[in-house]
Design a protein that fits this description.
The chain is α+β, with helices and mostly antiparallel strands. It has helices at about 15-25, 45-50, 95-105, 120-130, 135-145, 150-155, 165-170; strands at about 5, 55-60, 65-75, 80-85, 110-115, 130-135, 155-160. The protein has a single domain, classed as Gcn5-related N-acetyltransferase (GNAT) (Aminopeptidase), CATH 3.40.630.30. Helices cover about 40% and strands about 25% of the residues. Strands 1-2-3-4-5-7-6 form a seven-stranded mixed β-sheet, sandwiched between helices. The protein is globular. The chain starts with a strand and ends with a helix. The mean pLDDT is about 95.
Length: about 170
Amino acid sequence: MSPNIRRCTDDDVAEMVSIINEAAEAYRGIIPVDRWHEPYMPEAELRDEIAAGVEFLGCEDERGDLIGVMGVQPVQDVSLIRHAYVRPAAQGTGVGGALIAAITEMTDRPLLVGTWAAAGWAIKFYEKHGFTLVTPNQKESLLRKYWSIPDRQIETSVVLADQRWFNYVAVY
């Protein structure tokens, strides 16, 4: 498959919500029960994320159907990868890799991504694409600096960074 990556628009929001909630089912029973809610991401929450500066890229299949989304959000001196989801039927086909490559190309800022510590498959995906887990102390500092999440989520999450971030912190 040769994925078609494009910027998502307001017309895509309903389909994006569908993809996110379908793919997020993988987290049910994995993440702490107090962090799970139904739906995992309501449309209003996605719209709030977009209003807060998260720009989404989408991947279309050969029919032009959206099958994966990944957001990027500039925050201070870095960019955060946000809400990376691929329809379960399309997982393992290169969709996530194509989206992360497109996001990596569209920013020259260091990239950080947070995910659930118990989601080993997500951590392996990011590592496969050049990201490295930061130390537990760095994780807490980064989550408090760049994300607006509750303490419970900080406790149960990890942060991975691309090589640009490690180069950046080595300079400062």
